Amino acid sequence: MTGDIAVLGAGMHAWGKAGRGFVEYGTVAARAALADAGLAWADVQSVVGAGTVRGGYPGYVAGAAFARALGWQGARVTSVYAACASGAQAIATARAQILAGLADVVLVAGAEAAPKGFFAPAGGDRPDDPDWLRFRLLGAANPAYFGLYARRRMALYGDTTDDFAQVKVKNAAAGAANPYARYRTAVTAAEVAASPVVADPLRLLDICATSDGAAALVLCGPDYARRKGVRDPVRIRAVSTATPEYPRADLDLPDIATDSAAVPEPPAAFRPSIARAAYEEAGLGPDDLSLAEVYDLSTALELQWYEDLGLCPAGEGAKLLREGVTALGGRLPVNPSGGLASFGEAVPAQAIAQVCELTWQLRGQAGARQVPGARVGISANQGLFGHGSAVVAVR
Q: Which of 24, 123, 277, 367 has its CA 20 to 30 A from that of 285?
């Protein structure tokens, strides 16, 4: 048995602020994925839910919350929480169940009803929680370290605020063609530059919003796909859930530990190691990619991902952008969905949404944002506390 599993169905609930609960969003996405797969809910043998800490107990037990909303039918159920990597961990769990022969068909779903404003840790006093400490002791909401990363790139590589703005321009143009995106309006670099400063040098339009949203996938083994008449499905070939190694060259809030004298320098920093593990498992490399979906919490972080994915050498992310390589119509489009710049952050759903976009692109179903001849795609993001996340999909 190979490590490939098939994507039979992909579905989403549009991102935005609809004022409803995450379970409702998730069931809409799940039903859309089932319809796309041509399967009934009763055909599903396992449900893996990507959890949210903002939904009370139903959020913590998201798999059961979705299964109950769809109608109890006896499927096995799993709930996964790994912060922003929750969706990829849910996909990895489903893949393991399929390859182990525990289920033929698995529904993976993630959904969020996000608060207004920046994400904050759960309430209460928790002095042993590094995330709680960085808010209480440092006063550092997420944009604080987005800004630090941006300043680091400016100091090391000469990136400019206009380079950062052009990332937003690129992603907004793609998002304008995506019916699931929250923001569907093109913007100019001048509009980015005129938006309020949030964390110098980043402005409001450099930083993703918090959003409601949901995404779902129906996954199965290759044999099951063939039995259903699907001869050439999109296949997930690798799922990386790597963790960091000490010593760490880049500080990464809330994890502020750096090194140990007893540990030699690792071969790669954390984010490059996420991609490397996915490439090694898939037997592919950056030169094989048709597109990438990356975690653009800020415009500067997208440029960092270009380098971490091996699309260019360190320090040349902005050059790749300026040459138009990563735009729609370029040699290797990055975030043809519009990215978080167009969607906003719906934590348990976003890694699943990335794979939905890879699926539609590899099927040739992405409409005006279609990457011609797409055959291989990678998604990448990073969750709190060293949760790596990358998925390689092929056709």
A: 367
Q: Could you tell me the CA-to-CA distances from 128 to 136, 244, 245 in Å, in that order?
A: 12, 20, 21
The per-residue pLDDT for range 206-257, each reduced to its tens digit, is 999 999 999 999 999 999 999 999 999 999 999 999 988 877 766 676 666 6
Q: Which two tokens stand for residue 192?
A: 């980015």
Give CA–CA dist 48/90, Å, rounded: 6
Q: How far apart are CA 191 and CA 194, in angstroms?
A: 5
pLDDT in tens, 277-336: 999 999 999 999 999 999 999 999 999 999 999 999 999 999 999 999 999 999 999 999
Indicate the Cα dihedral angle 95, 100, 106, 108, nearest 10°.
Answer: -30
Beta bridge partners of 257: none
CA distance 51 to 28: 16
Peptide bond preceding 201 in cis form (omega within 30 of 0)? yes
Residue type (1 letter), 190: A
Supply the DSSP string of 337-389, one letter for each residue.
T-HHHHH-B-TTTHHHHHHHHHHHHHHT--GGG--TT--EEEEEEEETTTEEE
pLDDT at 371: 98
CA distance 377 to 362: 8
Within a 10 A sphere around the Cβ of 49, how many other Cβ atoms?
34
Residue 15: name the closest of 362, 332, 356, 294 by CA: 356
256: Cβ contacts below 8 Å, ≥ 6 apart: 130, 134
Closest CA to 320 of 337, 335, 303: 303
Residue pair 78/63 in contact (Cβ under 8 Å)? The answer is: yes
Distances (CA, A) of 295 to 85, 150, 165, 282: 10, 15, 16, 20
Cβ pair 82, 350 in contact under 8 A: no
59 is written with which tokens? 């959020």
Please give the structure tokens belonging to residue 74. Answer: 């006896």
Question: Residue type for 66, please?
Answer: F
The structure tokens 């799940």 sit at 30
Q: In the chain, how long is the greatest CA-to-CA distance?
A: 57
Given the structure tokens 């091996």, which residue do they identify? 310
- What does DSSP say about strands 5-16 and 234-240: parallel, antiparallel, or unpaired? antiparallel
